[in-house]
Amino acid sequence: MRASWTYNQILEAYFGFFVFSMVLIPRVIGIMFIPLVIIYAIGIVKRKFTFHLDFITILFVALYLAYLVGSFFTNDELAAFKTLEYKLSLLLIPILFSLRPETKLSIKKPIFGLISGCVLAILYGLFSAIQCYLNGGGGSCFLTASISPILHPSYFMVYLALGMVGSWYGYRMNWKGFKWYLVLLFILVGIVFHGLALSLSGILFLLLAAGGIMFYYVINKWRTLGGLLALMMWPVIGYVIITTVPQVEGEWNGAKRIANEYFESTEHFVSTREYPMSGSEVRLVMWSVSISEFLSAPWGAGTGNSSSQLANRLRLVNQPELAEKGLNTHNQFLETAVEVGFIGFLLLLLIILYGLRIGIKYKNWLLLFLIFSLAFNCLFESMLQRQAGIVFYTFWIFLSLNVAELNYKKFEFKIKAKGD
User: Fold this and answer.
1) Can you tell me the distance from the alpha carbon of 84 to that of 67, in angstroms, rounded to the nearest whole number?
2) How many CB atoms lie within 10 A of CB 410?
3) Domain-wise residue ranges, the chain
4) What whole-number distance in Å separates Cα of residue 279 and Cα of residue 252?
5) Which residues, other chains included, contact 245 with Cβ-Cβ below 8 Å and sequence gap of 6+?
6) Model pTM?
7) Which residue among 214, 296, 375, 386 is the one 20 to 30 A from 27 at the CA level?
8) What does the alpha-carbon distance between residue 10 and residue 3 come to, in Å, rounded to a whole number?
């Protein structure tokens, strides 16, 4: 019979279920914190932890406190309360992970939970798309939100990208069930779904991430010359993808055309765009009014006030239809700056810069991937305005600092053991 599970194994198993739930039933993720807190409370009573405060924990807590202070200057108490509720993970998760078990955790169960959730989400998306198509919905049933009905496509592509990297890592570490053909199939399906989701930020990040991984291995095998050749080849590969995949080509050409018009005359562009607009047009308009709002209130408009303040700005630039939709900035850096000012913006920037620093210093591939993903996607989406983004990034960033497999020497040994 199997021996009873250790405390660490129970915690790891719940992490896996927590991540699985995050992908498939994001609406109940708040409830999923209750068992997690109980497990940690039991660990505290049984003295399974030591408390260790990292600088990155201080930064996350300070960012939440900035929103808490900003709530005292809000014009909408309900919106401020909901914002603080959504962002509570910025406070809770770092504090929980500051409690370190005696032995480091394993990342296997959380990765398995993420991949399992992504697989079921993909199958459900295909089922929904087929149902839509059979009911006369046409080819659009297999695109954007129709193929990703559980999560917003931009968020699901973030989850899926990490799942793809995690599956590859599981294969490299010889984890049970991570056969090369299953991993390859999952990665290929993930690439196809990135194209179907029509998330330009997701596609661009996937290209950058794949290029970075390829560059790492090429430069390790063939040193500087190989790395330079890889860098030269990757734009060619990107060009081929952009010019041969119709959906990607359309998104790219549209974004390029709109950007040219925007930089020719920003004010004219913002005030003359007709509703409805493309995603790229909406982003440029929202970025422009967000910058104007931040410059007029550099200490922040107040927690929960961004939508109303931006709506007022949109009406001033002849965009009443966008004002009625209550859109966010589609850029987390600007979103944070608008709500809680320069201090909040600086804290978010410090989180990214410090995360990169310790990721490079300790050769923590997971942390580097997550920080790059956060920084890149924050340029195009307000990734930390929804729990789907807040919980995901905060959980995985702090998990990456607490897992045994990310010891660099162990990882290198595993690769060499496979004959590389």
Assistant:
1) 7
2) 11
3) 255-325
4) 12
5) 195
6) 0.89
7) 375
8) 13
